[in-house]
Amino acid sequence: MKVVVAVFPGTNCEIDTKYAFEKIGASVELVFHKSDKLPNDTDLVVLPGGFSYGDYLRSAAISKFSPIMSTVIKFANSGGRVLGICNGFQMLLETKLLPGAMKRNQKTHFISKYQHLKVINNNNQFLSKLKVGDILNIPIAHGEGNFFISDDEIKKLYDKEQVLLEYCDELGNEENPNGSISSIACLCNAKKNVFGLMPHPERAIEAILGSNDGVKMLEGFLE
Amino acid sequence: MENLEEVLKSHKLTNDEYQNILKIMGREPNLLEIKIFSSMWSEHCSYKSSKKYLNGFPTKAPWVIQGPGENAGVIDVGDGIAAVFKMESHNHPSFIEPYQGAATGVGGILRDVFTMGARPVANMNSLRFGNIVNNDKISKHQRYLVRGVVAGIGDYGNCMGVPTIGGECSFEECYNGNILVNAFTLGLAKTDEIFYGLAEGIGNPVIYVGSKTGRDGLGGAVMASDSFSEENKSLRPTVQVGDPFAEKLLLEACLELFKYDYIVGIQDMGAAGLTSSSFEMAGRSGSGMTMHLDRVPAREEGMEPFEFMLSESQERMLICAKSGYEEKVLEIFRKWDLDAEVIGEVTNSGNMELFWHGERVADIPVLPVGEEAPIYDRPVKKPTYLDEIAKISIDDFEKVDNQEAFDNLFARPEVVDKSWISEQYDSMVQTNTIKNSGSLDASAIRIKESGKALSMSSDCNPRYNYIDPFGGAAAAVMESGRNVAMSGARPKAITDCLNYGNPENPEIMWQFAQGCYGIKEACKALNTPVVSGNVSLYNETDGEGIYPTPAIAMVGVNDDANKTLPSAFQNENSPIYLIGETKSDFGGSLYLKKVYKKVGGILPKIDYEQELKLWELVIEANRQDLLYCAKDINVGGLVIALAKMSCVGDIGSTCRANMKDGRDIFSESFSRAIVEVKDEKSFKKLASKIGIKVEKIGNTTPKREFVCDDVSADLDELKDIYFHKFSQIIEQDI
């Protein structure tokens, strides 16, 4: 599998993302944001975490204007698979590849910790190796991860199997670290080829670091 | 010059120093030149009060690649990899403007490390605040400072993608008017690809890169060399404003630059900005340099030459490139959308010649500015309070029930978990963090390239340093090493950040001298040299000095990252051992302070041999896989350490300490640790071979209960206090 990781000014998870995908056997290429080309054999584009353009205006608000983004949007619209992690998720919202918007965390400050997640839907490639109801332990690290969408829209998201993960405690009970509506941590588009999540599966790939629950997530893309 | 006296006073130069300037210059200096001397000879840049004592530090060992004198220290950590690290203070700016002060402190120390060719891989910080628990004006302000400093550190490090993995934070009334913010960064480089702050080779271009220069931080170095008083509260404009995004670009651009052979040297513009970076770079080779200040990228119009020279705008570097490679260097920085301009070149004049639109506006011999910088031998005098407080003992007071004392001590902000702070720091980016804040004792990262791990710990007990400035400093070295050893890593070298009061006060100068002697003795005995460091003096407000606070950060190496030892209980029903000797040591203890409201007594006995045996036992026992976890005993004594291990491990424990005096479970005798043992027989054998006392004191249990002698608690209630108390205190105003 060929994974392309886009690098924006201020991206800081590109090396971790490369390391994680290589660990599960993918070949990984980093592409700088000033390029408007993706390699022909690209199977998956990852928009990684970080603080693109410092996130000074609004998270990911500037990065959508980078040359690479118009190419990524075309890639996604023609059915190509795109995964946005943290700042990358925010980019997918800013470019409308995914619905909704991100607000400042409810308690306003940055939160970095291990967070449990519950699998809500696995009828998609990303979580295909997991079962509905599985509890995962994956790091989160963000200041603006408070997902918001209107009540009408949220019902549609669940109906169309677009909500993939919710925040929870270790037993699967409600626990919401950032105020996200319906505790949503991860979603996909209606065509199920664009995925966005705030947690960092690429940080949970080895037991020595505290969890390898991210491996099964990333491996979903291998098939 | 007219009003010479006034000019000297406002630039904090003495008459003697001015006479020396006249001698160096061979003529009367102009105002720009005076400003340059004033900055370079400020306490902050010249170390004029401290140099005499710093010169005695042990700085060499076979694994030391670069000791003090460069941007950061460098040690060999095996497999061709070097660890580059340093700690630095940003105390004054953080008190004036907590968010920006702390943020730029982090930015500065990061630059010190990556300017040497290393990618920063770990941050820590050592924070001291005043009283935060009360409902008065002071505590409210202190809580505001905590929130601002933490947000500033977090936002900067997080944006940079450098994990903040540890540190320490404590609270003492002496910091009510002068908080301490010390930031530590460690980076990794290849041992043969270290870059230095050097400018040499006639005709080589001098290149300015990074953010544009503005008027922020003007005279910061001079400000940091003064005490606080009512008058200078309006110093906010001297605090720099940080732009972590610009620094992230600068980091990536510099690391890209370092892959090629385009440059001679590079140095960040920290305190005293372009002045200190240019003088230091030229000074290291004895070269001269020309710089055209009108070519320096400016943030605003109308700036004057002295503003370019003294601005402490952040995120800037000065590079001496190899002639002919200018365009290559500029290209890399432009790729990252950063300013980069050739502003001058290296000469053989030996002078720093500054030009403004073609006109020479300053001409100063480079070497004498460094070599003839004043070195003071300030008067010292043993403080009178010391003998007075030495007499204080717990036996002067009515006995308190152990349970009551435990409940009092355990809920203190100094003791409880501070994840309210550490959760605002991204501690996991770069995917190397094995132990971070909250997991007790040292923090640790693995090195992907070698399979080894680096452990690091920053420590200082200000109360110990108040009652015994020599022993307290030595104890800080021992504790930081002990914490590192508890993770299974061998302590290798330290960096320090020496925070003291006003050196013009002989009693403070005595404290400083004693602190240096203590560090020197401990580092020598423990074979952990000093490789870098920083001195912060004038930490006082309205004549009230802080407790001496020599923060020590130790770095150690574990040959196998998979063998990084935790510090909290791991299993039920395993034996708990106490290593070391416990005496009735309450000098400077938390017990004396919180139960009897006194800071006094005499420090426990220091025994380096005992300390080394403790390190050896834990490191070797871990290597042989005999342990589940290890934690040192410090503030609050045995019972507090055990309670923390139960809370963090979420495992109950029952211990009988069998102390001579029942209160000794709170004693703070040095060189002790608690271990959860996997293989008792082999562990005891190893201990007797090494020659250190070990004693089984209890077991971990399946019960949700914590018991130590006559102290007991429900584990879940204890955890509730341990994990929630701090946020309750700090968020009470918001």
Please characterize this protein's 3D structure:
The complex is a heterodimer of chains A (223) and B (734). With 223 residues, chain A is an alpha/beta fold. Helix content of chain A is 20%, strand content 26%. Chain A has five helices and eleven strands, in the order E-H-E-E-H-E-H-E-E-E-E-H-E-E-E-H. In chain A, strands 2-1-3-4-11-10-9-6-7 form a nine-stranded mixed beta sheet, sandwiched between helices. A two-stranded antiparallel ribbon of chain A has the order 5-8. In chain A, helix 1 links the parallel strand 1 (2-7) and strand 2. The N and C termini of chain A lie close together (9 Å). The model of chain A has no long low-confidence stretch (mean pLDDT 96). With 734 residues, chain B is an alpha+beta fold. In chain B, strand 4 (119-129), helix 8 (137-160) and strand 5 (164-171) form a beta-alpha-beta unit. The longest helix of chain B is centred in the N-terminal third of the chain and has 24 residues, at 137-160. Chain B is globular and about 80 Å long. The chains are: A alpha/beta (223), B alpha+beta (734). Chain A binds chain B through residues 9-10, 12-13, 15-16, 19-20, 34, 49-51, 53-56, 109-113, 139, 141, 143, 200, 202-203, 205-206, 208-209, and chain B through 151, 154-155, 158-161, 243-246, 248-249, 335-337, 419, 422-434, 446, 448, 561-562, 564.
Percent helix of chain A, as a range, is 10-25%
SS strand fraction of chain A: 25-35%
The number of strands of chain B is 28
* Principal-axes shape call of chain B: globular
The number of distinct β-strands of chain A equals 11
User: Can you tell me the CATH architecture of chain A?
Assistant: 3-Layer(aba) Sandwich
Number of domains of chain A: 1
Question: Largest chain interface and its two residue counts?
Answer: A-B, 31 and 35 residues
Q: Within the largest sheet of chain A, what's the order of strands?
A: 2-1-3-4-11-10-9-6-7
Low-confidence stretches of chain A: none
Q: What is the H-and-E element order of chain A?
A: EHEEHEHEEEEHEEEH
Rg over C-alpha atoms of chain B, rounded to the nearest angstrom: 26 Å
Q: Give the fraction of residues assigned to helices of chain B.
A: 25-40%
Could you give a short account of the major beta sheet of chain A? 9 strands, mixed
Tell me the strand order in the biggest sheet of chain B: 8-10-7-11-9-12-13
